[in-house]
Structures are given as structure tokens and as C-alpha cells.
């Protein structure tokens, strides 16, 4: 299976289960970011009401914290993607 098919299969699974597809945050953010959940921070802090109870995304990531390991191991790459799904505790449902 190639990367685009893995990504699409992941997102199709969750969107079929009523998750809102949320685009990846930019790799060049307007504010510092270190995790894909940062775009959801106002909802976790209770400072904003989410427009939806369930979301899925594939977040683009650039390795910075252990960049010296890139190329030395089979699991360290400079760029990777993290597939996520999030469910608001208020929804009363799991994934």
C-alpha cells in the first residue's frame, strides 16, 4: 500500500463515522506549534465552542527535537505525517 492510499483509507474510515475532516496545520505556522492538537487547544481549554464533536486529520510534521538521528535509524525521517482522530468528551461517543 502506498502513502496516499494509507492516508485516504485512514481518513475515509473516520469521516464515514461522522468525524469532520480538518486540514493539516501549516508547516509554517502563524504561531509556534509542536503538536497536531494545537489547533484544537481553545476547545480543550474551554475558551471556544467547537463547531463539531468529532474530527480527523493527517498532520504534517518536520522533525526538529532529535534531528541528529535522521538517517541513522529506519524510523527517523525529516518529514512525516501523524494520523489522528479526536472526539469531544461532550459528544458522549467514542471513535
From TrEMBL:
Its EC number is 6.1.1.7. GO terms for cellular component: cytosol. GO terms for molecular function: alanine-tRNA ligase activity; aminoacyl-tRNA deacylase activity; ATP binding; tRNA binding. GO terms for biological process: alanyl-tRNA aminoacylation. The keyword Translocase does not apply. InterPro entries: aa-tRNA-synth_II/BPL/LPL, Ala-tRNA-synth_IIc_core, Ala-tRNA-synth_IIc_N, Ala-tRNA_ligase. The keyword Transport does not apply. Belongs to the class-II aminoacyl-tRNA synthetase family. This is alanine--tRNA ligase. It comes from Spongiactinospora gelatinilytica. The lineage of its organism: Bacteria, Bacillati, Actinomycetota, Actinomycetes, Streptosporangiales.
Amino acid at each position: 500500500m502506498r502513502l496516499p492510499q494509507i492516508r485516504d483509507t485512514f481518513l475515509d474510515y473516520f469521516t464515514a463515522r461522522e468525524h469532520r475532516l480538518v486540514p493539516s496545520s501549516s508547516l509554517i505556522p502563524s504561531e509556534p506549534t509542536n503538536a497536531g492538537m494545537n489547533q484544537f487547544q481553545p476547545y480543550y481549554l474551554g475558551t471556544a465552542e467547537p463547531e463539531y464533536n468529532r474530527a480527523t486529520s493527517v498532520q504534517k510534521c518536520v522533525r526538529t527535537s532529535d534531528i541528529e538521528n535522521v538517517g541513522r535509524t529506519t524510523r527517523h525521517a525529516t518529514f512525516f505525517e501523524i494520523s489522528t482522530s479526536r472526539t469531544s468528551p461532550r459528544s458522549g461517543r467514542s471513535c
